[in-house]
Amino acid sequence: MGMRVLFIFLDGVGLGPDDPTTNPFCRASMPNLERLLGGRKMTAGAAPFDAGRASILALDPCLGVGGLPQSATGQATLLTGKNVPAMVGEHYGPKPNPPIAAIIREDNIFMRMVGGGKKAALLNAYPSRYFHALESGRRLPSAIPLAVTSAGLPLFSKEDFYSGDALSADFTGVGWRTMLGYDDAPVLSPQAAGLKLGELSQRYDFSMFEYWASDYAGHGQEMDKAVELLESFDGVLGGLLEAWDDSGGLIFITSDHGNLEDLSTRRHTLVKVPGIVIGRDRNLFCTGLTDLAGVAGKIEAEVRRQ
Ligand SMILES: [Zn+2]
To answer: On the CB side of 141, how many CA atoms lie within 13 Å of its CA?
Structure first.
């Protein structure tokens, strides 16, 4: 039987200092997130915390390797359960180099789900140009879609997005109109996108959603844009939590490294990342989870749990 897991991956989100001059989490109005965290803003002081519907843990993205954590090694660690920065001797990114790609292709959470007879999917939809760029070799896949295709699973397309079977990478679909040029793309409010995310996750034992705009906003260092993005994400969370059955499985939200929480630098940071676990039976999942390398094993155990 097992429990359902929805994994929301937020790129570049750390637990930063309580400083409204640099940390947009201190400025943004995020009532849905803050309700989960006992009324706190999501800064370093918010974790660890456990009450009501959720727990928040502080997870180590550095994994004993020097330098600033990066996306390829961080995401590969989340996907494989291995300490990939230690294996390749450095934090590396944003896209996987051949040694990191080989580690992902050999074994990852999507492959384990498929191998164990579980239904798994990445809920992001990709535009046609993404597939063309991959096929032509102009674009390297990032770690998460590489893990999906290594398991023989499809990446969702424009058709899946238009038919409501997948979600836009920005949650709402606005980017398909403004950045990708699809004038007729469906657009959802953040709340409706959250409801849709919850609804789609019910089709799978394990589903994942990759949100990269958070890291992009961190590199951009614009406070107003960062606050707007966080408030939109909070709307998504509100829609998701409204429909989510706490006894039916877990929602897990984490990141690969800090960035957005400190707009004083355009680089990644060394702070811990949040591990938010939502659902009634979350104790086992939370116990002993201290770093990114622990995540894949926890998800696998949860999906197989009787
Ligand atoms: Zn980055």
So the answer is: 21
- Residue 13 Cα, ligand 1 centroid: separation in angstroms? 10
206/227 Cα distance (integer angstroms): 30
Taking the centre of ligand 1 as the mean of its atom positions, its distance from the CA of residue 70, in whole angstroms, is: 7
pLDDT in tens, 37-96: 999 999 999 999 999 999 999 999 999 999 999 999 999 999 999 999 999 999 999 999
Q: Give the Å distance between the CA of 71 and the centre of ligand 1.
A: 6
Whether the Cβ atoms of residue 114 and residue 120 lie closer than 8 Å to each other: yes
| C-beta of residue 173 within 8 angstroms of C-beta of residue 217 | no
pTM (2 d.p.):
0.98
Contact 11, 210 (CB under 8 A): yes
The two structure tokens encoding residue 154: 């499809």
- C-alpha 7 to ligand 1 mean position (Å): 20
Q: Count how many Cα atoms sit within 13 Å of the Cα of residue 144 in the half-sphere of its side chain.
A: 28
Q: What contacts 239, CB < 8 A, 6 or more positions away?
A: 189, 190, 191, 192, 193, 194, 195, 196, 197, 198
298: CB partners within 8 A, 6+ apart: 252, 285, 289
Identify which of 154, 153, 165 has the alpha carbon closest to the alpha carbon of residue 112.
153
Q: What is the CA(211)–ligand 1 centre distance, in A?
A: 12
